[in-house]
Amino acid sequence: MDWSLRQLIEARRADQYRLHEQYLNTSLARVQGIIGFNKIYTRGEGAYLWDTEGTRYLDLLAGFSVFNFGRAHPAIKKAIQELIELDRPNLIKMDCPLLAGLLAEDLAKRMPAGLDAVFFANSGADAVDTALKFARAATRRTRVVYLEHAFHGLTLGTLGINGGEDFRKGFEPLLPGTDAVPMDDLAALEKQLRAGDVAAFIVEPIQGKGVYIPANDYLPEAQRLCRKYGTLFICDEVQVGMGRTGRFLCSEHWGLEPDIVTLSKSLGGGYVPVSATITRRKTHDAIFSRLEKCQVHSTTFGQNELAMAAGLASLHVLDEEHLVERSAAMGEKMLKGLAALQERYEMIADVRGKGLMIGMEFQPARTLALRAAWTAAEAAQKGLFAQFVVMALMRDHHILTQVAGPDVNIIKFLPPLIIGEEEVAMIVSAMDQVMAEATEVRGRVWAQSVELVKHALSR
Ligand SMILES: Cc1ncc(COP(=O)(O)O)c(C=O)c1O
Questions:
Q1: What is the mean pLDDT of residues 294-302?
Q2: Which fold has domain 35-69+323-457?
Q3: How far apart are the first and last CA of the chain?
Q4: What does residue 428 show for φ and ψ, rounded to 5 degrees?
Q5: How many beta carbons lie within 10 A of that of residue 458, not counting itself?
Q6: Residue 290: band (very low, low, confident or very high) from pLDDT cuts 50, 70, 90
Q7: Where in the chain is the domain with CATH 3.40.640.10?
Q8: 74-320 — its CATH code?
Q9: Are strands 399-400 and 275-279 parallel, antiparallel or unpaired?
Q10: Minimum CA distance residue for ligand 1 atom 16
Q11: Which band of pLDDT confidence, cut at 50, 70 and 90, is reported for residue 459?
């Protein structure tokens, strides 16, 4: 009998959460149940998902920014189908594949002047690890400085430059010679750089965990200090690149000229894992310095044709549909709509973002009963109020969002860049209704969260 993926999916659909509890991440599978995210999705298209009952969900997680072009984009899908049809010889290894060359050429055109040497890998952490190796080889220095609250991946290498205790704890010792500095503190950065042994200073131009945006002069000044002390300046654009913040690279907001840029996520068009580390030829050649060292850094699937085809099609779609401009325009509307809510709801402490990367931060209300409810939730687990909001958006409005990091009362909106005015209106109206309910201590936002508090207390 012919094996059919379609039949397998249909026959086993109902087992998906049980299979994860049994064979994969049991805790994660249980959390989905507790917060009401344990849906069985059957289809994804554009900015929406559909479950078995045909209910439609607006996806503001976008796979953590993997789906900037929306799901099942016809042009990207077609490129992948075409590639499979062509039976191209993939991963020969001892050749120089065309599609990798074409994608590198396209990316180089979009970079600041001089950044035209590309290394392809499979994930964001891979790209960051590569950037650190380039920096060490090019400067012959070892130390790396990073920002508090930073997130650059969870491999053992990138954990050493992770600014969150929750992620690091239990995995030490991590990469030696790394030091964190607070964002916006140029004196602290200069103190580190002055030692003359820092290979790289790495930043996310806007931090993903918390949507923290630096003061306007911070990154340009940090770049100047890096130049002064011979340290390479790395912009990790894995989440904020590819048009997410209304520019192709987020670092363009400040006219930065980093020495190394990392990209991933949407570069694979939502279909294929891929990442790129882009630097100057001189820096790149510091690793591949001699002919016999031409493979000293590599990864098996690095230039695979599926990823390269998805990358080429994705960049084409980005231009064709003017998605960078769209991200800027829709982001501005969404930010304005959400900021107007801040004036009406005292529990909204801040709304911030650029393009379609927007964070909303919460604070306790002044009303006695609400403040007591907040304190009880915080005592059970920090950041629980933001989780209540995420749950309410899902339950009542079928909108997927996320808390912006461990222990913070911030939610993050990362919609696909294809959203329009209709989706912006939906988001603002849903947030309006959730906040209105949250000002009622006997309302559903607080009441239906009892289960979550119980779970947090039982940890
Ligand atoms: C800025 C940044 N760098 C690196 C990574 C790691 O990417 P990956 O999960 O693909 O390893 C992430 C993931 O969210 C990220 O946001």
A1: 94
A2: Aspartate Aminotransferase, domain 1 (3.90.1150)
A3: 48
A4: -65, -40
A5: 7
A6: confident
A7: 74-320
A8: 3.40.640.10
A9: unpaired
A10: 239
A11: low
Band of residue 268 on the pLDDT scale cut at 50, 70, 90 = very high
The string of DSSP letters for 277-330 reads EEE-HHHHHHHS-SGGGTTSS--TTTT-HHHHHHHHHHHHHHHHTTHHHHHHHH
Neighbours of 382 (CB within 10 A): 14
The pLDDT, as a whole number, for residue 457 is 67
DSSP string, 367-407: SHHHHHHHHHHHHHSTTHHHHHHHHHHHHHH-EE-EESSTT
189-234 per-position pLDDT tens digit: 999 999 999 999 999 999 999 999 999 999 999 999 999 999 999 9
Instruction: Confirm if 207 and 147 have CB atoms less than 8 A apart.
Output: yes
Tell how far the Cα of 208 is from the centroid of ligand 1, in angstroms: 9
Question: Where in 157-297 does DSSP place strands (E)?
Answer: 178-181, 198-203, 232-236, 260-263, 275-279
Residues 6+ apart with CB under 8 A from 234: 128, 131, 132, 135, 200, 201, 202, 203, 258, 259, 260, 261, 262
Pocket of ligand 1 (CB under 6 A): 64, 123-125, 128, 151-153, 204, 208, 236, 238-239, 264
Q: How many helices (H) and strands (E) does the chain have?
A: 19, 15
Q: pLDDT by residue (tens digit) across 64-94?
A: 999 999 999 999 999 999 999 999 999 999 9
* Tens digit of each residue's pLDDT (9 = 90 or more) over 166-188: 999 999 999 999 999 999 999 99
On the question of a cis peptide bond just before residue 205, with omega within 30 degrees of 0, the verdict is no
**Do 120 and 303 contact (CB within 8 A), yes or no?**
yes
The phi and psi torsions of 112 (rounded to 5 degrees) equal -60, 155
65, 67, 151, 154, best to mutate for ligand 1 pocket (most atoms within 8 Å of CB): 151
Written as six digits, the tokens of 5 are: 């993926």
In the chain, CATH 3.90.1150.10 covers 35-69+323-457
Tokens 């917060």, residue located:
35
Which residue's CA is the nearest one to ligand 1's atom 3? 152
Six-digit token pair at 52? 């078995």
